[in-house]
């Protein structure tokens, strides 16, 4: 153990150290085997979480998993762009996801490698524009895109509320949240009381400026189990 | 600072890649964890700090200070200290050594006129022009990365010409599980 290793071990949580040990970082280079058998990994992820989808609450109505063929292509390392109704990437407008969490049909979508998730396309600057000059304004104020990846976090809604409540210019703020949840979790939009009861709370008042991609938390945990192989 | 180690090192790369895909040409981009609280006027204060660098390629980035006792009843910060990303070292044994961020020092900054340059980028808080996310989005081909997303983005950003700065003042605070009764029960990755 090197001095620097000791130094960090003292400050990091015990659980982290135990994980470091479990991945056996003292192996020789030739001992390293990276399990890149993607179909096997996918089946593990799916197997681990198949009972978690709740048809009653319809929690994953926006989780747009691709077709078997697309997943098969994706596992070859490709990200597929849908050919139909494809608008130029510089024409993609806010919101990236509709209010019910689906990707706008006219935007097209990509399928991510490995996970097979259907996801919004990347926006691009117009071809002749100067990338250093990109940036929209609202009422003369520069806009801010706030990206939040939430993992089963009941505080996501409070974080978004705080961002709008305490800003001088809430109209400049655009939130893109990735909500990794399982049924029963409090998601980024699950305010209490609901918007139908109190529409003046920030998450409801600025709902058009909040875009949420809800996905099954299995993709995060699946990643973890794979990482420790 | 401990809780950050969970979220930074394990699984969020895929989710943050999807989050980056939601960018639609906004002027500034910002990212942080889902359990943070802001101070009043945070947008104006943050943009003022960013402008004071005089650097279009400035990225304000740091781990965040704990929320406990950091925001008063009016919604203003009680802190005059700020973390700066400079405590990092290689961990592990050859040939699998990797650069790892430790707990970062937090003191009142010596330089008051502007944010201070630092060598590393932190996923826990990042504020920059939109073109930073445009040029350096999260990698969608690394769903199995266990360590090093922050290092990868730091290097990619630097080689694109971006400079990292510790914010002069904190405008947002993070609720660390170690000091938060209500976060102790949050599900973690292990």
List keywords for this structure.
heterodimer, A: 229 residues, alpha/beta, 3-stranded antiparallel β-sheet, 15% strand, disordered N terminus, B: 190 residues, alpha+beta, 5-stranded mixed β-sheet, two-stranded antiparallel sheet, 5 helices
Q: List the chains of the largest interface with their residue counts.
A: A-B, 87 and 73 residues
What Rg of chain B is obtained from the alpha carbons, in whole angstroms?
Answer: 16 Å
- Runs of chain A in which pLDDT lies below 50 for 5 or more consecutive residues are 1-36, 45-63, 221-229
The secondary-structure element order of chain A is: HHHHEEEEEEHEHEH
Q: Structural class of the secondary elements of chain B?
A: alpha+beta
Average of pLDDT of chain A: 73
Mean pLDDT of chain B: 87
Q: How far apart are the first and last residues' alpha carbons of chain A, in Å?
A: 24 Å
Helix share of residues of chain B? Answer: 10-25%
The termini of chain B sit apart by 18 Å
Strand order of the main beta sheet of chain A, please?
1-2-3
Query: Which percent bin holds the helix content of chain A?
Result: 25-40%
Description:
The complex is a heterodimer of chains A (229) and B (190). Chain A is built from seven helices and eight strands, in the order H-H-H-H-E-E-E-E-E-E-H-E-H-E-H. By secondary structure, chain A is an alpha/beta fold. In chain A, the strands form three sheets. Chain A has a three-stranded antiparallel sheet. The longest helix of chain A has 12 residues, at 38-49. Chain A starts with a helix and ends with a helix. Residues 1-36, 45-63 and 221-229 of chain A have low confidence and may be disordered. Chain B is of the alpha+beta class and 190 residues long. Chain B contains five helices and eleven strands, in the order H-H-E-E-H-E-E-E-E-E-E-E-H-H-E-E. In chain B, a hairpin with a 6-residue loop joins strand 5 (88-91) and strand 6 (98-101). Chain B is globular. The two termini of chain B are 18 Å apart. The model of chain B is unreliable at 1-10 (pLDDT under 50). Strand 6 (144-151) of chain A pairs parallel with strand 1 (28-32) of chain B.
């Amino acid at each position: 153990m090197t001095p620097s290793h000791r130094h960090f071990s003292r400050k990091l949580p015990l659980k982290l150290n135990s994980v470091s040990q479990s991945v056996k970082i003292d192996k020789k280079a030739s001992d390293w085997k990276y399990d890149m058998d993607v179909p096997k990994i996918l089946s593990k992820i799916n197997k681990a979480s198949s009972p978690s989808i709740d048809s009653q609450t319809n929690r994953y109505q926006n989780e747009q998993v691709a077709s078997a063929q697309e997943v098969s292509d994706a596992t070859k390392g490709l990200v597929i762009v849908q050919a139909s109704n494809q608008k130029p990437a510089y024409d993609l407008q806010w919101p990236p996801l509709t209010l019910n969490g689906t990707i706008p049909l006219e935007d097209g979508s990509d399928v991510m490698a490995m996970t097979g998730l259907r996801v919004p396309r990347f926006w691009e600057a117009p071809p002749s524009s100067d990338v250093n000059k990109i940036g929209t304004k609202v009422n003369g104020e520069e806009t801010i895109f706030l990206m939040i990846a939430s993992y089963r976090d009941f505080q996501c809604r409070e974080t978004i509320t705080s961002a709008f409540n305490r800003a001088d210019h809430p109209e400049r703020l655009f939130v893109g949240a990735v909500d990794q949840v399982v049924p029963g979790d409090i998601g980024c939009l699950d305010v209490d009381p609901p918007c139908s009861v109190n529409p003046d709370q920030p998450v409801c008042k600025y709902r058009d400026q909040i875009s949420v991609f809800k996905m099954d938390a299995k993709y995060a945990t699946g990643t973890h189990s794979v990482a420790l192989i | 600072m401990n809780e950050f180690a969970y979220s930074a090192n394990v699984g969020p790369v895929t989710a943050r890649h999807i989050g980056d895909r939601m960018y639609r040409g906004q002027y500034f981009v910002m990212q942080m964890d889902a359990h943070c609280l802001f101070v009043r006027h945070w947008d104006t204060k943050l943009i003022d700090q960013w402008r004071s660098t005089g650097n279009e390629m400035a990225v304000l980035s740091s781990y965040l200070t704990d929320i406990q006792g950091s925001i008063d009843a009016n919604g203003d910060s009680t802190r005059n200290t700020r973390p700066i990303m400079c405590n990092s070292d290689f961990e592990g044994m050859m040939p699998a050594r990797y650069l790892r961020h430790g707990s970062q020092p937090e003191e009142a900054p010596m330089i008051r006129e502007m944010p201070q340059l630092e060598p590393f980028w932190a996923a826990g808080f990042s504020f920059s022009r939109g073109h930073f996310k445009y040029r350096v989005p999260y990698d969608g081909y690394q769903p199995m990365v266990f360590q090093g997303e922050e290092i990868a983005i730091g290097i990619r950003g630097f080689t694109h010409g971006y400079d990292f700065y510790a914010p002069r003042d904190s405008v947002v605070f993070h609720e660390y599980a170690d000091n938060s009764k209500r976060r102790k029960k949050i599900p973690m990755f292990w």
